[in-house]
Amino acid sequence: MKDLGTLTTVELRSVWGHEALEFTRWLAMEENINLLTDELDIEIENMKPEESAGRYSVDILADEVNTKRKVIIENQLEPTDHKHLGQLLTYASAHDASIIIWIVKDYTEEHKQAIDWFNRHMPEEISFFLIKIELWKIGNSHPAPKFNIISQPNNWAKTLKKASSQYKGNPSELKLLQQRFWQSLKEYVNQQSVKSKVNYGRTPRPQHWYDISFGTSKAHLSLTFNSRTKQLGCELYIKSDESIYMKIEADKVAVESELGQDIEFMDLPEKGAFRIIKTYPCDLFDENKWPAYFEWLDGQAQKFQKVFKRYF
User: Fold this and answer.
1) Which domain covers residue 13, as residue numbers?
2) If 294 and its partner were Cys, which of 27, 38, 135, 188 is the partner (CB 3.0–4.6 Å)?
3) Is 297 within a domain?
């Protein structure tokens, strides 16, 4: 019989000694915030750590992707208290937030009851989450974070669906096809005998792209499904950091030797960003060909990750 490890908890402060300087900065990194948003089944963008709210600063301010509603996140590596509850309401009113997330080490039953009361009596547009964060490890492994939902709005899935339909309408047949494509990609990768080095942790959504984080908040990989131009794409998307883009462009010959000369370097001044992309012509509506497309996407994603990781 094989030996099994034992799960043990790790004290939060042993990893994040300072709430703002360490935990909030850690959480604001794309691959870490995804752990939280995947648990809540939402997707956020435009994150702003330590955003001003009058005389105070909210830990993280962001936008929910589908509805553009404001999201605020307040972190507390201690048990809940009245002070932070009051701060949350102040931040929510200052930013007209609709999704309010309180991350804590532990909670009192009184504060849980207060959050539950808010969710029962506030309009459906206002959603309040109480999240307990824990760190676990097996044997001598690195600690792994786990976000546990303690309180959330009643019928949250129904509320999210209603909000999305109000802002963007019901998903079209094309959007549903795109979501099925990304879900099938994840299943394909998981079934391969050789494990991919790419982390397909994001929840597939009805959209033409699938983002992949690889250890930096300055850029991410993105796989694309473009029905208009009839092509797939694998790209590095750099967020507002020209120095990194220029460094890669200076190594263009070396990069092309590894990824091929058909990659395209793109400056996106209207977005203040940069893109390095490789495309593949295909018939996206022929599902019999999807396995070949999945093989190309995963192969390119692994190459892009290997090549570009050294620049961050």
Assistant:
1) 7-167
2) 188
3) yes
Task: Identify the pLDDT of residue 167.
Answer: 46
Give 270's pLDDT tier (boundaries 50, 70, 90). Answer: low
Residues 192 and 154 in one domain: no
Q: Note whether 277 and 144 are same-domain residues.
A: no
Do 227 and 102 share a structural domain?
no
Burial of residue 19, with CB atoms counted within 10 A of its CB: 0-12 exposed, 13-18 middle, 19 or more buried: middle
Both structure tokens of 9: 């908890």
